[in-house]
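Hi Y.,

Following your request, here is the sequence exactly as I used it, all 127 residues.
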Amino acid sequence: MADVNRGNRPLSPHLSIYRPQLTSITSILTRITGNALIVAALLIVWWFVAASVSAEAFATADAVLTGWFGDLVLFLSVLALWYHSLAGLRHLYWDTGRGMDIETAEKLGWACIGGSVVLTVLTVLVV
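Below is the corresponding structure, written out as C-alpha coordinates. Let me know if you'd prefer a different format.
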Protein backbone atom coordinates (compact mmCIF):
# COMPACT_ATOMS: atom_id res chain seq x y z
CA MET A 1 0.00 0.00 0.00
CA ALA A 2 1.30 3.46 -0.83
CA ASP A 3 2.41 5.75 1.95
CA VAL A 4 0.28 8.85 1.40
CA ASN A 5 0.80 11.89 3.60
CA ARG A 6 -2.69 13.39 3.66
CA GLY A 7 -2.10 15.80 6.55
CA ASN A 8 0.20 18.27 4.76
CA ARG A 9 -1.66 18.60 1.46
CA PRO A 10 -3.40 21.92 0.75
CA LEU A 11 -7.12 22.19 0.18
CA SER A 12 -8.38 22.31 -3.34
CA PRO A 13 -8.00 25.89 -4.68
CA HIS A 14 -11.58 26.04 -5.97
CA LEU A 15 -12.84 26.29 -2.37
CA SER A 16 -11.31 29.73 -1.93
CA ILE A 17 -12.36 31.21 -5.28
CA TYR A 18 -15.78 29.64 -5.85
CA ARG A 19 -18.64 32.10 -6.31
CA PRO A 20 -22.15 30.62 -6.35
CA GLN A 21 -24.00 31.23 -9.59
CA LEU A 22 -27.56 32.51 -9.69
CA THR A 23 -28.74 29.22 -11.16
CA SER A 24 -27.35 27.24 -8.23
CA ILE A 25 -28.87 29.66 -5.72
CA THR A 26 -32.29 29.48 -7.40
CA SER A 27 -32.06 25.69 -7.48
CA ILE A 28 -31.37 25.61 -3.75
CA LEU A 29 -34.22 28.08 -3.15
CA THR A 30 -36.58 25.83 -5.09
CA ARG A 31 -35.78 22.93 -2.77
CA ILE A 32 -36.07 25.13 0.34
CA THR A 33 -39.43 26.57 -0.72
CA GLY A 34 -40.78 23.12 -1.49
CA ASN A 35 -39.93 21.92 2.01
CA ALA A 36 -41.23 25.14 3.59
CA LEU A 37 -44.55 24.64 1.81
CA ILE A 38 -44.84 21.22 3.43
CA VAL A 39 -44.45 22.81 6.87
CA ALA A 40 -47.04 25.48 6.04
CA ALA A 41 -49.44 22.83 4.76
CA LEU A 42 -49.05 20.90 8.01
CA LEU A 43 -49.94 24.04 9.98
CA ILE A 44 -53.07 24.55 7.89
CA VAL A 45 -54.03 20.88 8.30
CA TRP A 46 -53.53 21.28 12.05
CA TRP A 47 -55.93 24.24 11.95
CA PHE A 48 -58.58 22.19 10.10
CA VAL A 49 -58.17 19.15 12.35
CA ALA A 50 -58.39 21.34 15.45
CA ALA A 51 -61.62 22.83 14.09
CA SER A 52 -63.10 19.35 13.80
CA VAL A 53 -61.94 18.18 17.24
CA SER A 54 -63.11 20.81 19.73
CA ALA A 55 -63.60 24.50 20.30
CA GLU A 56 -60.60 24.62 22.66
CA ALA A 57 -58.27 22.96 20.16
CA PHE A 58 -59.48 25.30 17.43
CA ALA A 59 -58.98 28.33 19.66
CA THR A 60 -55.36 27.28 20.24
CA ALA A 61 -54.65 26.64 16.56
CA ASP A 62 -56.48 29.79 15.52
CA ALA A 63 -54.50 31.88 18.00
CA VAL A 64 -51.25 30.57 16.54
CA LEU A 65 -52.25 31.03 12.89
CA THR A 66 -53.84 34.46 13.31
CA GLY A 67 -51.08 35.82 15.54
CA TRP A 68 -47.88 37.46 14.33
CA PHE A 69 -46.18 34.08 13.88
CA GLY A 70 -49.01 32.72 11.77
CA ASP A 71 -49.15 35.89 9.70
CA LEU A 72 -45.42 35.66 9.04
CA VAL A 73 -45.59 31.96 8.16
CA LEU A 74 -48.55 32.43 5.83
CA PHE A 75 -46.98 35.48 4.14
CA LEU A 76 -43.75 33.57 3.56
CA SER A 77 -45.82 30.63 2.34
CA VAL A 78 -47.42 32.81 -0.33
CA LEU A 79 -43.94 33.97 -1.38
CA ALA A 80 -42.70 30.37 -1.41
CA LEU A 81 -45.72 29.21 -3.39
CA TRP A 82 -45.23 31.83 -6.09
CA TYR A 83 -41.49 31.25 -6.26
CA HIS A 84 -41.86 27.47 -6.40
CA SER A 85 -44.52 27.75 -9.11
CA LEU A 86 -42.44 30.10 -11.26
CA ALA A 87 -39.36 27.92 -10.81
CA GLY A 88 -41.43 24.93 -11.89
CA LEU A 89 -42.47 26.78 -15.05
CA ARG A 90 -38.82 27.62 -15.67
CA HIS A 91 -37.93 23.93 -15.39
CA LEU A 92 -40.72 23.01 -17.79
CA TYR A 93 -39.25 25.51 -20.24
CA TRP A 94 -35.82 23.97 -19.76
CA ASP A 95 -37.29 20.51 -20.37
CA THR A 96 -38.07 21.60 -23.93
CA GLY A 97 -34.33 22.16 -24.46
CA ARG A 98 -34.60 25.94 -24.62
CA GLY A 99 -33.13 28.61 -22.36
CA MET A 100 -30.10 26.59 -21.36
CA ASP A 101 -27.48 29.22 -22.22
CA ILE A 102 -26.05 31.17 -19.29
CA GLU A 103 -27.60 34.55 -20.15
CA THR A 104 -31.10 33.17 -20.56
CA ALA A 105 -30.80 30.99 -17.45
CA GLU A 106 -29.78 34.00 -15.37
CA LYS A 107 -32.63 36.11 -16.80
CA LEU A 108 -35.07 33.35 -15.95
CA GLY A 109 -33.62 33.14 -12.43
CA TRP A 110 -34.09 36.86 -11.86
CA ALA A 111 -37.58 36.59 -13.38
CA CYS A 112 -38.46 33.89 -10.83
CA ILE A 113 -37.19 35.98 -7.94
CA GLY A 114 -38.71 39.27 -9.09
CA GLY A 115 -41.93 37.69 -10.28
CA SER A 116 -42.48 35.91 -6.99
CA VAL A 117 -42.01 39.16 -5.04
CA VAL A 118 -44.38 41.11 -7.31
CA LEU A 119 -47.01 38.34 -7.32
CA THR A 120 -46.77 38.00 -3.52
CA VAL A 121 -47.35 41.70 -3.03
CA LEU A 122 -50.29 41.63 -5.44
CA THR A 123 -51.75 38.58 -3.71
CA VAL A 124 -51.45 40.13 -0.24
CA LEU A 125 -52.97 43.42 -1.42
CA VAL A 126 -55.88 41.75 -3.22
CA VAL A 127 -56.65 39.13 -0.57
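The first helix runs from residue 14 to 17.

Thanks again,
Q.
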